[in-house]
Design a protein that fits this description.
The longest helix has 16 residues. This protein has a domain of 124 residues: Aminopeptidase (3-Layer(aba) Sandwich), CATH 3.40.630.30. The protein contains four helices and eight strands; from the N terminus they run E-E-H-H-E-E-E-H-E-H-E-E.
Length: 180
């Protein structure tokens, strides 16, 4: 397990899947904001491709996020779009509704940065988020990410186009203790 100051990032357990599916992905409005693909229902009992881990896939590393104190599942975190040639990747995370607003997001981003830069030897990490996602923007910027641009009207979310903010962090700019 990778440890932050408040959270741990561990392998996805089979019993995590029903909780993440119910709390994050069956919520149409939340899932539509978190995924660039259109929401669609998944048949009960079917494998949900967003949650099932394929240990053979090299371009995506999914984690379950747990509280360090008691090991309670509080969300999901992913390093995705891993490009070993250019040594870059994207960061994504989703916290259960009951775990939002407690500073976990900032710690998840910090822990993913440690994984990307130290464990994987990457040069660049990137985050794309909706422009109104103040919590993600704050978590990224507290970890040293820089706003690099706005993708105007690039995300179709629940009947309207929204702007996305592109943030980046280079390994030489990263300060492991910059969790703020």
């Amino acid at each position: 397990m990778l440890r932050g100051s408040k959270v741990g990032l561990r392998a996805r357990h089979e019993d995590d899947i029903p909780i993440l599916r119910t709390e994050l992905y069956d919520d149409v409005a939340n899932a539509s904001r978190a995924d660039g693909r259109p929401w669609r229902p998944i048949t009960p009992g079917a494998e949900d491709p967003r949650l099932v881990v394929d240990d053979e896939e090299q371009g995506r590393v999914p984690f379950s996020v747990v509280e360090l104190g008691g090991g309670t599942l509080i969300g999901t975190a992913t390093l995705w779009g891993i490009d070993n040639h250019s040594r870059s990747a994207h960061i994504g995370l989703g916290l259960l509704p009951s775990s939002r607003g407690k500073g976990y997001g900032t710690d998840v981003v910090a822990t993913l940065c440690h994984y990307g830069f130290v464990v994987r030897g990457l040069q660049r990490l990137q985050i794309e988020t909706l422009s109104d996602n103040a919590a993600m923007l704050r978590s990224a910027e507290r970890n040293g990410f820089v706003r690099e641009g706005v993708l105007r009207s690039s995300a179709w979310v629940m009947g309207e186009f929204l702007d996305e903010v592109l943030l980046g962090l280079l390994v030489q700019e990263w300060k492991p203790d910059s969790k703020g």
